[in-house]
Write a structure and sequence with these properties.
The chain is α+β, with helices and mostly antiparallel strands. The chain contains 27 helices and 32 strands.
């Protein structure tokens, strides 16, 4: 040690000292050697004299940095919490998987502890952990979920047997922004730390913490003697104040100069802060584990890391284990060296018993207890494209350094849907490369993007920006602008229907078309180069025919189409040219999916949402989700498009969706661009809008249509999200609509001699003329189809009822 006797002897300067004085000094030295306590005090005076000037330069540093370092923590991103309500259907497997991912352990014991769950045929008992994310605790406790035979929740109860209207299970962490230091910490207040944890730490690290002034001279002397005897460092003499000073400001290298600075800083800390403040800072700063490339600091995060518990719920043996780890986190790691960690824990327990901090019975129980470590689960890094996008939005709104301030970000991401989305993209692209080997390019891989959102709230529930985040971090779902092709046609239909001069029964000509444009002669063609003559708007959309839609686009006007796209939330630049009706301008998958979502929401365009709440390190909500938006289109107009897109699935280009196994209600449209560069499939149910894009980044042809490349990925996602038969909800028809039998060949009302099919119309826009070749005179006036329906049809209905009665 730097205050050893040899160092003292070498520092004496005898030159110029008279013999009597030299003899007096030697006698004093011999007396000091015979008086250890006096020697220790003398050395303390020397050390303090030397350290006084060293403390001065550090004082400003300590005062400036202690509070910041005390509560610094990384920014954490969480998925939306799983909310359980009476009446909802929960999948046994999905709930169990969710709990397992959160680190909960299944038990068969009658008493369920926090972080455990017990499962029977119709009952779940879950020891919900409190959710600590921003210096506060939310929720927690034992709850019971009762289900019916059909898997629906029949009752929710808390530990006291009281009924609950809902139950929110702690959100699943999806990402952490650690900053340049790569430190993980969850700050806690000293009042939240159990007393037995405080006792354990002080027992093993600094028993006279509340008595010394920063340096424990007695402990230093004892450690010095022990180290000299062993001829190596076997004991440390550092106090908690010294350890805190070293952790905050100094390097871990053991040098005399560092020890001097450490002691000076410890004295300065003690002079500026109270004992409880220093202890609280130490408990939040102490290094306790290494999780890959991330350092675990503080008892708050360590309690979660080792035991899956909040620090407030640590038991005596768990507290002793944490305290024992401090001396050597690698040596005493219970994951790496469980037996060594157990012996260290028992040593702490023995010392606590010796100091009468625990009773003998508690000591006996604790030493018999297993380490109680939680099952380690690795973060699979789901939703990384989404997290990057949320981070970009936060930095845009709150500044570039916002992620360095230890935020808690509760996002809208649904982890179940996110996992299904990533699996659908991964498996779908692998199938394409297997079935079409030419797509497995050596220089680059075929890519895909998928977006799923809630139409009513605008919340993003799932997002995949590419097939492999590790290979490419470019988010194609948000930033990849590509031509949508035929998937843009529903926007043209909505433009026409909103003018009330067109209906789904309006006849469009499918004949050769040539248009002079500034870029030259434009001659659109259908995918099969055939022309079918006149056909209804519904049939043209279901078959995805280009020429009729080129005519429709020119009839309503490209500027009107741009206006509709803007009202649906598309912000990308759109060229108001005739080819716009066929999807010639570039959009992103997110924009197009959001536009379809407006139709799913019956014409309401909500603002896009990515965050349920953003909370700073002091618990203040700096941003929260606020539902906002506006009615972009009348619900009746939106429903007409939904009706036509449902027909595209049942009879048109999306009918192979049923072949791929999805049977639920859905409205959707495929899209394919020129030369098969981009493949799309966009669709929605009453509660979910989903968009899929497939293609190469450089725009080379994939040689496949949207129905072949993108639809299978869409189908995989829908089956994974809702099952083969979809949601237990249907599209509802709003008011202001009529259903009329229409002849598809003419677009007129059906009647005797011309068969019809049901068609939906905004009230007052259905055709009044009949296609029936039969008519009769009444006073020289021809009976129109509408009159036939009103006068003659009831007679035929009565005849049918009479015939049925006779048969019965």
């Amino acid at each position: 040690m730097f205050w050893s006797r040899n160092a003292f002897r070498s520092d004496l300067v005898w030159y110029g000292v008279t013999t009597p004085r030299r003899e007096a000094i030697m006698r004093a030295r011999q007396w000091v050697r015979r008086q250890p306590k006096v020697a220790t005090a003398a050395w303390a005076i020397v050390v303090f004299t030397l350290l006084a000037p060293l403390a001065i330069p550090f004082e400003a540093l300590v005062r400036a940095r202690l509070d910041h370092s005390w509560f610094s923590s990384p920014t954490r991103f969480y998925a939306g919490p799983m909310v359980v309500r009476p009446g909802m259907e929960i999948g046994r497997a999905s709930l169990e998987e969710h709990l397992e991912r959160l680190g909960y352990q299944r038990t068969r014991r009658s008493r369920v502890e926090l972080g455990e769950y017990r499962l029977s045929s119709r009952e779940w008992v879950i020891g919900l952990r409190a959710f600590r994310a921003y210096g506060q605790l939310d929720g927690g406790g034992v709850v019971t979920i009762r289900t019916s035979y059909g898997g629906r929740v029949s009752r929710l109860r808390d530990a006291d047997g009281r009924s609950l209207s809902y139950l929110a299970i702690e959100p699943e962490p999806i990402s952490t922004h650690y900053g340049p230091d790569r430190e993980d910490r969850l700050p806690v207040k000293l009042t939240e730390v159990p007393q037995h944890l405080v006792d354990a730490v002080l027992t093993i690290e600094d028993q006279r913490f509340y008595e010394h002034g920063g340096l424990d001279i007695k402990r230093i002397a004892g450690a010095t003697v022990a180290n000299i005897k062993a001829r190596r460092v076997v004991q440390g003499g550092s106090t908690i104040s010294q350890q805190l000073a070293k952790n905050l400001y100094l390097s871990p290298r053991r040098t005399p100069l560092r020890k001097l600075r450490e002691a000076a800083l410890a004295i300065t800390l003690e002079s500026r802060y109270g004992k409880d403040e220093i202890l609280e800072a130490y408990l939040n700063e102490v290094y306790l584990a290494q999780d890959g490339g991330v350092a675990i600091h503080g008892v708050g995060r360590a309690a979660q890391y080792f035991f899956g518990k909040d620090v407030t719920h640590l038991e005596i043996p768990e507290a002793a284990l944490l305290a024992g780890i401090i001396r050597g986190p690698s040596l005493y790691s219970p994951f790496r060296n469980p037996e060594t960690a157990r012996k260290r824990r028992d040593l702490v327990l023995d010392l606590m018993l010796e100091r009468e901090l625990i009773a003998e019975s508690a000591h006996a129980r604790a030493t018999r207890t297993s380490l109680g470590l939680q099952k380690r689960t690795r973060n699979a890094n789901h939703g990384r494209y989404f997290v990057d996008w949320v981070a970009d939005r936060l930095e845009r709104d709150h500044g570039s350094d916002v992620l360095e301030s230890g935020l808690t970000i509760l996002t809208t991401l649904d982890m179940e849907l996110q996992r299904v989305a990533e699996e659908a993209v991964r498996d779908g692209l692998a199938r394409l490369e297997r079935d079409y080997p030419r797509l497995a390019q050596e220089d680059q891989s075929i890519q895909a993007a998928l977006v799923a959102l809630d139409p009513a709230s605008g919340a993003i529930l799932a997002m995949v920006g590419g097939r492999d985040y590790g290979t490419s971090q470019f988010n194609r779902a948000v930033y990849g602008r590509r031509q949508p092709g035929s998937s843009f046609k529903p926007i043209v239909v909505l433009t026409a229907l909103s003018q009330h001069s067109f209906t789904l029964a309006s006849m469009l000509e499918d004949e050769p078309l040539s248009v002079e444009t500034p870029a030259g002669l434009w001659q659109p063609a259908n995918y099969d180069d055939r022309f079918r003559g006149p056909l209804t708007m519904r049939e043209a959309l279901e078959r995805s025919l280009n020429v009729p839609f080129a005519r429709l686009g020119m009839a309503v006007g490209p500027d009107r189409i741009v206006e509709t796209a803007r009202k649906l939330g598309i912000q990308s630049h759109l060229n108001p040219v005739p080819s716009l009706a066929l999807g010639s301008s570039e959009v992103t998958p997110l924009e197009l999916t959001r536009a379809f979502g407006v139709m799913a929401a019956e014409g309401f365009r909500s603002d896009m949402q990515t965050d349920l709440a953003v909370i700073d390190g002091t618990g203040n909500i700096i941003q929260r989700m606020e539902l906002d938006g506006e009615v972009a289109y009348d619900p009746a107009e939106a429903y007409l498009v939904t009706s036509a897109l449902r027909g595209a699935v049942e009879r048109g280009t999306g009918r192979s969706l049923r072949t791929w196994g999805y049977r639920g209600p859905v409205a959707a449209k495929s899209g394919t661009t020129n030369d098969f560069r981009d493949a799309w499939f966009i669709g929605y149910t009453p509660s979910l809008a989903v968009g899929v894009w497939v293609g190469f980044d450089d725009g080379r042809s994939i040689g496949l249509s949207g129905s072949r490349a993108a639809l299978p990925i869409f189908a995989r996602f829908m089956v994974g999200a809702f099952g083969r038969y979809g949601e237990d909800v249907e599209f509802s028809m709003p008011r202001g609509l009529d259903v009329v039998e229409i002849n598809r060949e003419t677009g007129l009302r059906a009647g005797p001699g011309c068969r019809g099919e049901p068609e939906v119309f905004i009230r007052g826009t259905a055709p009044t003329q009949s296609c029936s070749p039969y008519w009769r005179s009444s006073g020289g006036i021809r009976i129109a189809r509408s009159d036939w329906h009103d006068r003659v049809a009831p007679l035929f209905a009565e005849l049918r009822r009479k015939a049925e009665r006779e048969r019965n």
